[in-house]
Amino acid sequence: MRAIEKIDFVVLWVDDNDKEWLEEKAKFTKNADKTVENDKLYRDYGTFHYWFRMVEKHAPWVHKIHLVTNGQVPDWLDAAHPKLNLVKHADFMPKEYLPTFNAAAIELNLHRIPELSEQFVLFNDDMFLVNDVRPEDFFVDGKPKLMAVYNAIVPAEAFDQLLFNNVKLIKRHFPAKKALKESPFKFFTFKYGKYLFKNIFLLPWDITGYHNPHLPAPIRKSTLDLLWTKEKETLGTASCNHIRNYATDVNQYICHYWQIETNQFEPFEQNKGAFLTINEVGRLPRLFKSRKVKMICINDTVDIDVENLKYLQDLLLKYYPVKSHFEK
Prior knowledge:
With 328 residues, this protein is an alpha/beta fold. The protein has a single domain (7-319), classed as Spore Coat Polysaccharide Biosynthesis Protein SpsA, Chain A, CATH 3.90.550. It has helices at 19-29, 48-58, 89-92, 103-108, 159-173, 178-182, 184-187, 196-201, 221-230, 232-239, 253-261, 284-289, 306-319; strands spanning 7-12, 65-69, 84-88, 119-124, 127-129, 139-140, 143-146, 217-220, 266-267, 273-277, 295-299. The chain has a 5-stranded mixed β-sheet. It has a 3-stranded mixed β-sheet with strand order 5-11-10. A 3-stranded mixed β-sheet has the order 6-7-9, covered by helices on one side. Helix 5 (159-173) runs parallel beside helix 11 and helix 9 packs across helix 10. It is globular, with a radius of gyration of 19 Å. The protein starts with 6 loop residues before the first strand and ends in a 9-residue tail after the last helix.
């Protein structure tokens, strides 16, 4: 039997109540565009300890968890856990990029984390495992499992400019859908559910954008390293942005796009993941009971309903009441 390569998890977290951190961030955000910079981007639900409980229960095979922060450590966390690696931004990001409050800049430099495995899965702290997952849910024969679904970028909000920047980068190297022509059944598969029809509708066009599932992201370290070799100026410019700058930022999605266009991926089953906002948490009991859904994202909104947040906290306590070994 072939040995399964080790897979790490990487999770980004910030304590938005840290006064020192707030004071430092204010130096960069006081004149920022509020449509780009707002509190929801940094808000902590008070549920991060459940993230560890869910990983311990549903992915005990994970090799290492790299918790990436600006130096903050949750007071409930057992920093001595053998599978845990506490990583400060300064531990892996070049000095000229610091301090940073830009998630895109952090993501683009993750390959620099010492001892990070070649295959890793990137989580935000609002992404949770709700059912048992296997390594094959993220990588197959070293290839990340992705949704190779094209999309048309509609400039509905500021973030769409970042997506446009991602696509411009990719089109410099892949002006046409060569991978689709080589492996059409990776693109036209019922594994993508309703999103399959986007590929059908956009078939006559060159690359116009991609569907981006907001779920845990499998990434190859070598892909990110290669992108720095080929697009050092673009990635370097984004990394220099201490706060979000959608005019010039690109983000980790380019790793997915690169894997797709080089045909180095396997299709991800759309029904294994679910996306909802904090104000849609009434859907959670059904998702927790589902045998198909394995991972979810509970995305924040600008205006948060306190009752929904309390409902989320109570529900997670009901389903995951036992402390993990990552907790003191």
